[in-house]
Amino acid sequence: MIVCSCRAVSEQALREAACAGLSPAEVEAQTGAGGDCGCCREEVAYILSRAAGPCRAGGACPGCPRRQAA
Ligand code: FES
Where does the BFD-like [2Fe-2S]-binding domain start and stop, copy by copy (predicted)? Predict the structure, then answer.
């Protein structure tokens, strides 16, 4: 699913960025998500906040690319 329509950034790409430990500012710098109209910023922040907690705790969030690769 595309979250940022301006830059065509998918939810999966955002989850992968969260697993890599990128901050919202770093995600914007690398993917462009949130950097144009800004309409997606709230959803981007929500996805990053959901994914970052379990991943950093050593667990796996829903749709985790690391778990799918294992
Ligand atoms: S929808 Fe993401 S910056 Fe416009």
Answer: 2-49
